[in-house]
Specification:
Length: 108
């Protein structure tokens, strides 16, 4: 095994590598934890559409409404048992519970 002459430098480098690895893993976990369905999203906040977790028909229907990944939308009205009203590109749209549950969003 090859050893360097300065063990304190080796320990510091190893510690920095561990910290960077842990930090990137934590950041990825936090980003994943922030993705939720539109049905779970808070009213009055802006959300970025990340994906549609539904079939091709739902994806096409939402695309026809202009709701596509990357777009920031605002949840204007949300009742747990009714439609979710969003504002997207200046248009107010009401989405049913099923569509809202399949639309994955993250904070904008």
């Amino acid at each position: 095994m090859l050893m360097s002459g300065n063990s304190s430098t080796d320990h510091a480098t190893a510690a920095a590598t561990r910290t960077a690895t842990e930090s990137s893993a934590t950041g990825a976990a936090e980003a994943a934890a922030q993705v939720l369905s539109l049905h779970e999203a808070a009213e009055g906040r802006r959300w970025r559409i990340k994906a549609v977790a539904g079939g091709v028909e739902l994806q096409r229907a939402l695309a026809r409404l202009g709701l596509r990944p990357g777009l920031c939308i605002e949840v204007a009205q949300h009742t747990r048992c009714g439609p979710v009203v969003v504002v997207a590109d200046g248009l107010k749209l009401a989405l049913g519970t099923d569509a809202a549950e399949h639309l994955l969003v993250a904070p904008c």
